[in-house]
Write a structure and sequence with these properties.
Chain B: Transmembrane (T) component of an energy-coupling factor (ECF) ABC-transporter complex. Unlike classic ABC transporters this ECF transporter provides the energy necessary to transport a number of different substrates. The structure holds 2 protein chains of 2 kinds. By secondary structure, chain A is an alpha/beta fold. Chain A is built from 11 helices and 10 strands. A 6-stranded mixed sheet of chain A has the order 6-7-8-3-9-10, with helices on both faces. A 4-stranded antiparallel sheet of chain A has the order 2-1-4-5, with helices on one face. In chain A, a hairpin with a 2-residue loop joins strand 9 and strand 10 (about 220-225). In chain A, helix 3 (about 105-115) packs across helix 4, helix 3 (about 105-115) runs parallel beside helix 5 and helix 4 crosses helix 5 (about 150-160). Chain B is built from 9 helices and 2 strands. In chain B, a hairpin with a 2-residue loop joins strand 1 and strand 2. Classes of the chains: A alpha/beta, B mainly alpha.
Chain lengths: ~290, ~270
């Protein structure tokens, strides 16, 4: 893999203050790199610091110690703030609270208008962005006429229009119904594959994380695991210990291994699980009935 | 129930008036208002009505919408008419105690009533044919010279846009909160006015809390999309004056000229 680092968190720490002005550490000396074109999931239960980490990647928050480097720019460089924000787009949980304008295409144009792009270029980029999320035919609708999944795709288009190198999505599917989740995940995967946009997906859905190149598990402001989904989800016990589930297939495989059956330890999808179980049954002399 | 509320009373359409530049429409409405108040005789009122009789059919807005627009101000019209009729000096037709009905009073009352109806019908035409977002945009651009005086023109327009954007969202939220409070046994339909006003508190407080939360998130999302105020901002949709705008302008100027002519020809009634 090409080692072109786009996001680099270098030993960053951050704390909030509670109501009594006592500092509460959220990130503790955390280091993470994301390469260009990667699709990384960040998992963690509530309060693990995953949203705080996300906000460091486009200079909404600055680390107290350590440095956060975005495409070679330190987020502490105030005069390059908008360069950073244009490179790293951010999508939040509630689509209703990110849409600014009363017409879909006006909203997608918002970031470009802020950046001072020329009107003809805005028009072109807005159309491109709406097409890439499959919302072009809705360009003249009002946001409140759209479903949750559609609204979230408009929000993604609004970020894509800036032509960012990377998008950070903070639980973009948490408020959506299953269909909306599916639509949004498909859109994100497509942007990653077809346009080579680096994606950092913060989520608490295991099946979404399983579709990524790499899974980062956070707990208590630190990184617990940072590896391919197969490897991470084989640590069923450790994940349970920090309040996370694993995909059901991985859970089933793990329990069978526990009972002494010989299954490959890296099963995470339903298909892999079915194959592994079929192999096990075949070995025990049980075969599909209709087979000759 | 709350979803049926429409703000701004915009009727989407593709008529000539709909297609006019919103900036021009605002200017023309202002001109029309000035014209109504410049005219001081029967002829000038006829010109005002004549304008409406042309403008409404061209914009394909049914005339009955005028009645709808005027309805809420009928009490004001009646009130001023009665005052005018009873307290204007002139040729006395009928009198009782301190009241006297004069010919001049009746004339003035009718003139004022017609003027107010024309005023409302003319300004409603603007909101009937222009979407709120186009209006906001036009206001921002018309007021942009005031930026030199440090007036926050862009910020005001932005606030209007966001308000318009969040009206449906907050209406939906209000509906949800009402249902949630009813499910907890809130009684909003019975009792005195004071009881009912008190029953609104458990609706308004959650609504305010959530509106503030939304505002905070929206501000964050706007910052992430490089928002930094009006400076250096461009717009996707450029407003252009085209043929129809000048036709509209010519028509209003024509009506204005007619008004001025009637003023010189006919006796003033005020």
């Amino acid at each position: 893999m090409e080692q072109d680092v786009i996001l680099l968190a270098d030993h960053i720490s951050f704390h909030y203050f509670d109501d009594n002005e006592r500092p509460i550490p959220v990130l503790k000396d955390l280091s993470l790199t994301v390469n260009r074109g990667e699709f990384v999931a960040v998992l963690g239960h509530n309060g693990s610091g995953k949203s705080t980490l996300a906000k460091h990647f486009n200079a909404i928050l600055l680390p107290e110690t350590g440095n956060c480097i975005v495409d070679g720019i330190n987020t502490r460089e105030e005069n390059r703030l908008y360069d950073i924000r244009q490179r790293v787009g951010m999508v939040f949980q509630n689509p209703d609270n990110q849409i600014v304008a009363t017409i879909v295409e006006e909203d997608v144009a918002f970031a470009l208008e802020n950046m001072g792009v020329s009107p003809a270029e805005i028009r072109k980029r807005v159309d491109d962005a709406l097409k890439s999320v499959g919302m072009y035919e809705f360009r003249e609708h009002a946001p409140h006429q759209l479903s949750g999944g559609q609204k979230q795709r408009v929000a993604i288009a609004g970020v894509i229009a800036m032509r960012p190198d990377c998008i950070v999505l903070d639980e973009p599917t948490a408020m959506l119904d299953p269909r909306g989740r599916w639509e949004v995940m498909r859109t994100i995967r497509q942007l990653n594959r077809e346009f080579g946009i680096t994606v950092v997906l913060i989520t608490h859905y295991m099946d979404e994380a399983a579709q990524c190149d790499r899974v980062v598990v956070m707990d208590d402001g630190k990184i617990l695991f940072n590896a391919a989904p197969k490897e991470v989800f084989s640590h069923v016990k450790a994940l349970h210990a920090v309040g996370l589930d694993v995909p059901q297939a991985a859970q089933l495989a793990d329990e069978l291994i526990e009972l002494g059956y010989s299954l490959p330890p890296d099963v995470i999808s339903e298909e892999e699980c079915a194959d592994a179980l079929a192999a096990l049954l075949d070995g025990a002399g049980i075969h599909p009935q209709h087979q000759a | 129930m709350l979803k049926d509320i429409t703000i701004g009373q915009y009727f989407p359409g593709k008529s000539l008036v709909h297609r006019m530049d919103p900036r021009m429409k605002i200017i023309l409405v202002i001109l029309y208002i000035v014209m109504l108040f410049t005219g001081d005789n029967v002829g000038s009122l006829i010109v005002g009505i004549f304008f409406l009789l042309i403008a409404y059919p061209v914009s394909k807005i049914p005339m009955k919408m005028v009645a709808k627009g005027v309805k809420p101000v009928i009490p004001i019209i009646l009130f001023t008419a009665v005052l005018n009729m009873l307290f204007v000096d002139g040729k006395v037709l009928w009198s009782w105690w301190v009241f006297k009905l004069t010919q001049e009073g009746i004339q003035l009352a009718v003139m004022m009533a017609v003027r107010i109806v024309c005023l409302i019908a003319g300004t409603s035409l603007l909101t009937y044919t222009t979407s709120p977002i186009a209006l906001t945009d036009a206001i921002e651009r018309l007021l942009s010279p005031l930026k030199k005086l440090n007036l926050p023109v862009h910020e005001l327009a932005m606030m209007m846009t966001i308000a318009l954007r969040f009206i449906p969202t907050l209406i939906e939220e209000t509906d949800k909160i009402i249902s949630a409070q009813k499910a907890r046994g809130a009684d909003m339909e019975s009792g005195s006015i004071i009881d009912r006003a008190k029953a609104m508190i458990p609706i308004l407080i959650p609504l305010f809390v959530s509106a503030f939360r939304r505002a905070e998130e929206l501000a964050l999302a706007m910052e992430c999309r490089c928002y930094r105020g009006g400076e250096g901002r461009t717009r996707m949709k450029q407003l252009h004056l085209c043929g129809i705008d000048f036709v509209g302008l010519a028509f209003v100027v024509f009506c204005f000229a007619l008004t001025l002519i009637t003023n010189t020809l006919l006796p003033s009634m005020f």
